[in-house]
């Protein structure tokens, strides 16, 4: 299912920019606003290797704080030092590529499109032992991939949804209507 206009409007407000790619929502919060979307991988003939996007403003803010506190390096150190964690993370890259392939079944792709989409893992990462950003890892996990980094980010979050007294997406929509 591709995004509808109201859904696209909400996601554009969440990301503070117009989203040009078609997408479907794979996870919503209890307030029924998108938390994670699945982007269409080919848009206008151009490959777009980031499959899952974290759109929820609350989660994005909390994850940004984690990144600014140096957690990317801590996860990369863990991937380097712990063999079982590294193996699970590498499998998450493989699983992501499989999901990409499944979503493109029946489409004729050029060699350069295939290389761009399948030559990289989570979020277009070429070096599978590195972490581009924690937002990608969490979106990948919430999108259904068995991603240990995304799972650990999810489990360490102090909040996972807006509280009833302050629903950020509702506030964004109200501000946009003025």
Question: In words, what does this structure look like?
Answer:
This protein has one domain. The two termini are 30 Å apart. 31% of the residues are buried. Strand 1 and strand 2 form a beta hairpin. The chain has 8 helices and 5 strands; from the N terminus they run αβββββααααααα. The radius of gyration is 17 Å and the shape is flat. It is mainly alpha-helical and 178 residues long. The strands form 2 sheets. It has a 3-stranded antiparallel sheet. Strands 3-4 form a two-stranded antiparallel sheet.
Could you write a compact summary of the structure shown?
The protein contains 8 helices and 5 strands.
Show unreliable segments: none
Morphology call:
flat
Instruction: Please summarize the sheet with the most strands.
Output: 3 strands, antiparallel
Please report which band the strand proportion falls in: under 5%, 5-15%, 15-25%, 25-35%, 35-45% or over 45%. 5-15%
Measured on Cα atoms, how large is the radius of gyration? 17 Å
Gap between N and C termini: 30 Å
> Averaged pLDDT, please?
93
Strand order of the largest sheet: 1-2-5
What sequence of helices (H) and strands (E) makes up the elements?
HEEEEEHHHHHHH
| DSSP summary: helix tally | 8
Structural class: mainly alpha
- The number of E-state strands comes to 5
Tally of domains: 1
Helical content (DSSP H or I, runs of 4+): 40-55%
Protein name: DUF501 domain-containing protein
InterPro entries: DUF501
Organism: Mesotoga infera
């Amino acid at each position: 299912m591709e995004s509808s206009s109201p859904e696209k409007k909400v996601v554009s407000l969440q990301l503070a920019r117009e989203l040009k790619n078609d997408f479907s929502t794979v996870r919503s919060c209890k307030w029924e606003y998108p938390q994670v979307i699945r982007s269409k991988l080919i848009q206008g003939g151009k490959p777009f290797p980031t499959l899952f996007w974290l759109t929820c403003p609350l989660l994005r803010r909390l994850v940004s704080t984690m990144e600014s506190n140096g957690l990317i390096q801590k996860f990369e150190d863990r991937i380097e030092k712990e063999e079982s964690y590294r193996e699970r993370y590498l499998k998450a890259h493989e699983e992501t590529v499989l999901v990409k392939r499944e979503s493109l079944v029946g489409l004729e792709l050029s060699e350069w499109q295939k290389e761009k989409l399948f030559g990289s893992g989570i979020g277009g990462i070429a070096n599978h032992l590195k972490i581009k950003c924690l937002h990608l890892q969490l979106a990948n996990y919430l999108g259904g991939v068995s991603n240990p980094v995304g799972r650990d980010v999810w489990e360490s979050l102090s909040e996972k949804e807006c509280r009833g007294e302050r629903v950020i997406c509702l506030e964004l929509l109200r501000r946009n209507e003025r």
